[in-house]
Amino acid sequence: MATQMYVSDAQGFSYWQSSAYLDKNATSGNESAVFRDAQDDLITTGGVIPSDYNAANDIKVILHWASWAVTTGNVIWEVQFERLAEDGNSTTTSTWSAALSNNQACSGTLGALKYFELTFTNAQAAGVQPGESFRVRVTRPALTNPGGNDTMAGSAQLMKVILDEQN
């Protein structure tokens, strides 16, 4: 069973020091962060871990994304956590966890959503604890293309980042 911990949409993403940008589909009005195919684009988002989170449980990160331009190819997604604990690491430097990544094929239907999932142990999620602030960074490393698995020639539109506690 999963308990939803956090949801952010494109307006809640931080684009500061990011090459990704906010876009709005002219027909539907849906907003997304645009991750281009010739860049290593990223966004960050974050909040506070719920006070009832059990740190022994895994955290599943779910990305809702689509392609508004093409219907073939794979996208690599990388996700990292940063724990912002009271009296913990300095907030003047970043202390991101090691990235977990995988690739996913885009939908064969133009604009149709795909749900990409990665599951983190608490240790992989930077050891976040109940009531603590955190950040999540999502990257499409299309330029560096680790493993050569990002083959989608076109932008990926990231619409939501969801965190679910796996209990």
- Global shape: globular
Q: How does the helix and strand content classify structurally?
A: mainly beta
Number of domains: 1
The helix-strand sequence is EEEEEEEEEE
Question: What separation lies between the terminal Cα atoms?
Answer: 6 Å
- The CATH homologous superfamily corresponds to Galactose-binding domain-like
- Give the CATH topology: Jelly Rolls
CATH class: Mainly Beta
If you had to describe this structure to a student in words, what would you say it looks like?
The chain is mostly beta strands. The chain has a single domain (2-166), classed as Jelly Rolls. Helices cover 0% and strands 47% of the residues. The chain contains no helices and 10 strands. Strands 1, 2, 3, 5, 8 and 10 form a 6-stranded antiparallel β-sheet that branches. A 4-stranded antiparallel β-sheet has the order 4-9-6-7, with no helix packed on it. The mean pLDDT is 91.
Features:
0% helix, 167 residues, mainly beta, 4-stranded antiparallel beta sheet, Jelly Rolls, 10 strands
Can you lay out the helices and strands and say which pair or pack?
Layout: E1 2-9, E2 21-24, E3 31-35, E4 40-48, E5 58-66, E6 74-84, E7 100-105, E8 114-120, E9 133-141, E10 156-166
Antiparallel strand pairs: 1-10, 2-3, 3-10, 4-9, 5-8, 5-10, 6-7, 6-9
What is this structure, in a nutshell?
With 167 residues, this protein is mostly beta strands.
